[in-house]
Design goal:
Length: 171
């Protein structure tokens, strides 16, 4: 277990190692490390029965259920969801790097939000301001989405990186 305090901040993080992944969980939103261990188990299998979670944590089933209820109420656990594999989702995936006029960020983000092929948008440091993940059914649909992104008011330049295969997916 590793504790880290961010420079100039009071946020504390702990890293918990599961057999499948390492995750950093913000401790400020939880009471203790047991909550973080519970979250680590849920990231491995969100459908795990409460009885199984309790056994792995060495706690009573009712205790684990109470912790889950509290984490849900407080918003730490926002929900449980299904993740499809890349193969099952199909289509063509790309990362589009966007350089924009800083004063037009709100307009660019609003425009990206209207493009159905845009799945995620992240702000970045460096030469490009945004990294967008797109998914389209065909190369033609991807090309059209790229054209719409390039035409947005405030976009100075774009660079598209087509995903060929996924080698590691922790998420």
């Amino acid at each position: 277990m590793l504790r880290h305090t961010a420079a100039g901040s009071k946020r504390r993080y702990e890293r918990f190692v599961s057999p499948f992944r390492q995750i950093a969980v913000r401790i400020d939103d939880m009471t203790d490390a047991t909550d973080a261990r519970l979250i680590a188990l849920l990231t491995e299998n969100a459908r795990a029965p409460v009885a199984q979670l309790a056994q792995r944590l060495g706690l009573a089933r009712s205790t684990v259920q109470a912790r889950l209820d509290r984490l849900e109420r407080s918003g730490v656990v926002a929900g449980y969801t299904l993740r499809l594999s890349e193969r099952a989702r199909g289509g063509i995936c790309a990362t589009v790097l966007v350089q924009m006029v800083p004063a037009r960020q709100a307009a660019v983000l609003a425009g990206l939000g209207r493009i159905a092929e845009v799945e995620t948008v992240h702000t970045t440091s460096g030469r490009f301001d945004l990294a967008c993940r797109l998914r389209a059914e065909t190369t033609e649909a991807l090309d059209a989405a790229l054209d719409r992104i390039g035409a947005l008011d405030g976009v100075k330049a774009t660079e598209a990186l087509i995903h060929l295969s996924t080698r590691i997916d922790r998420g």
